[in-house]
Amino acid sequence: MQTDPRIDAYIEKSADFARPMLRKLRADIHAICPDTEEKIKWGAPSFSYRGKNLCGMAAFKSHAACFIQGERKEEGAEGMGEFGKMRSMADLPSKARISVLLRERMKVIEGAVAKPKKAPKPELDVPADLAKALKASTAAAWFFRDFPPSARRDYIEWITEAKTDDTRARRLAQAIEWIAEGKHRNWKYVKK
């Protein structure tokens, strides 16, 4: 059983009533699904299986919660999670009940079909005025050639979508300046 020390810390910071519940839930989850991976997601302990969300748990001021990914609340349950607000060990679902739900979720994960990848957009032809400007700037030509197709497409679309000749000329001049500096079209918004 591989554990995440952040979950140990989360449990230790939890209210006294919640600690034994969280420890028991964690042990049950690992016993049912030994291949689970622990993480902190959304600020609470989360467990994944084969890279997909399996379940999670959380502690609050006056209750704890357990949630199985994709499950519905049990009849009459209030609060977050399938089992409602758990205030004591007596409120915990049985290991057998958790086992049924986790095994159902594991089957869903095992049967999951990967989404087909989108076909890449076709490479756009470089318009004559852009080709001429790139030929005049060695640095711009070199960077433009090494840009990924999406970056080249961004510049080509930006230039060709101009509605007036003046706008197109301004965009072309700006594009050559930025390209010569190795900047993608939306370089201002890229996190550093």
Helix content: 40-55%
How do the helices and strands follow one another from N- to C-terminus?
HHEEEEHHHHH
Shape: elongated
Strands across the major sheet, in which order?
1-2-3-4
Largest sheet: 4 strands, antiparallel
Helix/strand/pairing category: alpha+beta
Ends apart, CA distance between termini: 37 Å
Strand fraction: 5-15%
Report the radius of gyration as a whole number of Å: 27 Å
Q: What is the total domain count?
A: 2
Q: How many distinct beta strands? A: 4
Low-pLDDT residue spans: none
Helix tally? 7
**CATH fold annotation of the largest domain:** Aspartate Aminotransferase, domain 1
Average pLDDT number: 87
Any idea what the CATH architecture of the largest domain is?
Answer: Alpha-Beta Complex
Task: Record the SSE blueprint.
Elements (H helix, E strand, L loop, with lengths): L4 H9 L4 H15 L4 E5 L2 E6 L2 E8 L4 E5 L26 H16 L17 H9 L1 H9 L2 H12 L4 H16 L12
Antiparallel strand pairs: 1-2, 2-3, 3-4
Helix pairs in contact: 2-3, 5-7, 6-7
